[in-house]
Design brief:
Low-confidence stretches: 20-27
Largest sheet: 6 strands, mixed
Number of helices: 2
Keywords: Disulfide bond, Signal
Structural class: alpha+beta
Family: Belongs to the Ole e I family.
InterPro entries: Allergen_Ole_e_I_CS, Pollen_Ole_e1_allergen
Organism: Camelina sativa
Protein name: Pollen-specific protein-like At4g18596
Distance between the termini: 87 Å
Shape: elongated
Length: about 170
């Protein structure tokens, strides 16, 4: 009987020590985030992807985190898109008390480089960079696509809108 108790105690100790090691490893990973996103050329100036949109290679984006209390910048990091228009960046640290967002910096295409100046149309993607937010994946954050706009919408835009059942408020 005593040997069963010792065996049970030994097995329990081994299990608990291995769980503690896993918990410590996971806690270290909670302050490391992989951010993924993409940048496109908005050929219809509607600020969402259509079949006419093109993803941009060489576009620059910037991650900026600001203090919720006084608005000071606490983190800035830039990335450049690859040939598929995608970018990745790694960020360390918990930014729960900050507002973090990705913004467009520079377009590689001079014909597609407009960014809306209107506050309500601001092309930025907010992102949560904390493990204390209820998001199951603590490592990867996928950001909404960001788009530069052409100066004049493509003549094909009305047909593209009609295909998806949208009637724009503007005339092309």
């Amino acid at each position: 009987m005593a040997s069963k108790a010792i065996f049970f105690f030994f097995v329990s100790a081994v299990c608990l020590s291995s769980l503690a090691g896993v918990a410590i490893a996971d806690a270290d990973d909670f302050d490391r985030f992989q951010i993924q996103g993409s940048v496109y050329c908005d050929t219809c100036r509607v600020q969402f992807i259509t079949r006419l949109s093109k993803f941009l290679e060489g576009a620059k984006v910037k991650l900026e985190c600001r203090s919720r209390v006084n608005g000071t910048v606490t983190l800035t990091k830039e990335a450049v898109t690859d040939k598929s228009g995608s970018y990745k960046m790694e960020v360390t640290g918990d930014h729960e008390e900050e507002v973090c967002e990705l913004v467009l910096v520079e377009s590689p295409d001079s014909e597609c480089s407009d960014v809306s100046k209107e506050a309500y149309l601001r092309n930025a993607a907010k992102i949560s960079l904390t493990a204390n937010d209820g998001i199951v994946s603590h490592e990867t954050r996928i950001v909404n696509p960001l788009g530069f706009m052409v100066k004049t919408p493509s003549a094909e835009c009305p047909a593209a809108f009609k295909e998806i059942g949208i009637v724009p408020d503007v005339t092309f």
